[in-house]
């Protein structure tokens, strides 16, 4: 039963949609670009579920003008995208590739002409392969490599970008790339993971300092958060929930907002947990302007001592609705998560920088794609976001994930999140019903 009462968001609330470079651009080596670690990883046998790679993706590198026209059709006020580091710096540092900068200048000019606010993420997982080969984020120098890259973007593109984010979801880089090995670089190392997390946050802080020196606009950090519940009232499951909460939700935010890491992490990593310099922890506290929160689902946890940290596993909920990712549809978790951030971290300005769902959409028919489950997912989560605003959360905007069906990392192209369907054999775009629903939400500034 959908609640039919109408709701209105505050004046000036920012409505957008999001993508990332490796997932939509294609042409990974065009015009002097260097390979990223995701280019390298996706070409490894069996790395990607359907054997997909980002070689073509949505061909956005060449079709960006058509895609900006789609954004206008949807009435987007903002567009969140990421910059491919290895287009700008083919070897990750040193020599700049002017053609790489020129692509993003063209994209930014089209967006500004269309009255769409660019929101640029500096790093959305695609590290230059040349830097991966020097240890990547496990190398303490990675923070400086990132700061130099950031400085170039602020200098070259800064006058066209009002909203910047340093990193997208450091937790996923650590968990999927260094703990479970299912994302680039495909490592499984309890010794590397804590250092990778730490160097990512050092990079974020040095990036913010570079921004303060010569950036314009606002800069933030984007994290994925998921409220954790206990599968039973027993102490073991409660402890598992607490470990899972520390591991996903508190690790990075405590680092940059409180200057410390949760004690549970040292406990669960044991002798693999390093001793971090106090000077480093002070650097992490470099203040930034907003928090980007990516919300999709919650998880219900039980104790799993045999698992790597956080020694927990999620339990499927009988009778609940799930997306194609196996993620429970749980909009109330968004309200709860936003309230938790407000209370724990001092009421920072927040953007929902990603929210969306993968459902098995039908092929386009007569120029239409019926995706009612995605419409209901978005409706429910927009209501939850509005409830958080009513409860006093300083929520400034919302970006739907994603503008386009795209490359869903290790799952390839089968999982579709787009407001717009992409037929990858023809590259034809078709706005789905959820895209038209979202267009109307933006036009009404509410439901
Ligand atoms: O999975 C959908 C999207 C990705 O396509 C985005 O690139 C990424 O920013 C993103 N993060 C999340 C939530 C965190 C997560 C990512 C991957 C696997 C499990 C959880 C969901 N998504």
UniProtKB/TrEMBL annotation:
Substrate binds at residues 23, 124, 168, 296, 401, 408-409. InterPro entries: GH (IPR017853), GH_1_N_CS (IPR033132), Glyco_hydro_1 (IPR001360), Glyco_hydro_1_AS (IPR018120), Glyco_hydro_1_beta-glucosidase (IPR017736). Keywords: Carbohydrate metabolism, Cellulose degradation, Glycosidase, Hydrolase, Polysaccharide degradation. Its EC number is 3.2.1.21. It catalyses: Hydrolysis of terminal, non-reducing beta-D-glucosyl residues with release of beta-D-glucose. The active site is at residues 169, 354. Pfam families: Glyco_hydro_1. GO terms for cellular component: cytosol. GO terms for biological process: cellulose catabolic process. The keyword tRNA processing does not apply. SUPFAM superfamilies: (Trans)glycosidases. One of its GO terms (molecular function) is beta-glucosidase activity. Belongs to the glycosyl hydrolase 1 family. This is Beta-glucosidase. It comes from Methylogaea oryzae.
């Amino acid at each position: 039963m959908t609640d039919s009462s109408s709701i209105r968001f505050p004046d000036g609330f920012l409505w957008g949609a999001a993508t990332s470079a490796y997932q939509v651009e294609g042409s990974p080596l065009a015009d002097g670009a260097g390979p990223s670690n995701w280019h390298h990883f996706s070409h490894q046998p069996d790395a990607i579920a359907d054997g997909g790679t980002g070689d073509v993706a949505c061909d956005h590198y060449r079709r960006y003008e058509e895609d900006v026209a789609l954004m206008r059709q949807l009435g987007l006020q903002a567009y969140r995208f990421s910059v491919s580091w290895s287009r700008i710096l083919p070897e990750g540092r040193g020599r700049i590739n002017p053609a790489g900068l020129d692509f993003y200048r063209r994209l930014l000019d089209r967006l500004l002409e269309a009255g769409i606010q660019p929101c640029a993420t500096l790093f959305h997982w695609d590290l230059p392969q040349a830097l991966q080969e020097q240890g990547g984020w496990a190398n303490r120098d990675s923070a400086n490599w990132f700061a130099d890259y950031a400085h170039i973007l602020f200098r070259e593109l800064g006058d066209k970008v009002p909203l910047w984010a340093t990193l997208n979801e450091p937790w996923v880089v650590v968990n999927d790339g260094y703990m479970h090995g299912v994302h680039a670089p495909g490592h499984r190392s309890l010794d590397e993971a804590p250092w990778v997390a730490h160097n990512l946050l050092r990079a974020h802080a040095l990036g913010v300092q570079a921004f303060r020196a010569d950036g314009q606009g606002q800069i933030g950090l984007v994290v994925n958060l998921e409220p954790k519940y206990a599968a039973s009232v027993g102490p073991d499951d409660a402890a598992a929930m607490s470990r899972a909460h520390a591991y996903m939700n508190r690790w990075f935010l405590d680092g940059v907002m409180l200057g410390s890491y949760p004690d549970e992490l040292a406990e669960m990593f044991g002798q693999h947990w390093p001793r971090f310099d106090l000077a480093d922890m002070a650097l992490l506290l470099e203040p930034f302007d907003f928090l980007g929160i990516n919300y999709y689902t919650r998880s219900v946890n039980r104790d799993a001592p045999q698992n790597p940290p956080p020694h927990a596993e999620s339990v499927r909920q009988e009778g609940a609705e799930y997306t194609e990712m196996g993620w429970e549809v749980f909009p109330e978790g968004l309200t709860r998560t936003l309230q938790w951030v407000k209370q724990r971290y001092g009421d920072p300005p927040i953007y929902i920088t990603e929210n969306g769902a993968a459902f098995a959409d039908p092929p386009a028919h007569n120029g239409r794609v019926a995706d009612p489950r995605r419409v209901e997912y978005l409706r429910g989560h927009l209501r939850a976001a509005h409830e958080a605003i009513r409860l006093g959360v300083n929520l400034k905007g919302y970006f739907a994930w994603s503008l386009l069906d795209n490359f869903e990392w290790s799952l390839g192209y089968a999982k579709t999140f787009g407001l717009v369907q992409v037929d990858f054999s023809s590259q034809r775009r078709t706005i789905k019903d959820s895209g038209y629903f979202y267009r109307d939400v933006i036009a009404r500034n509410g439901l």
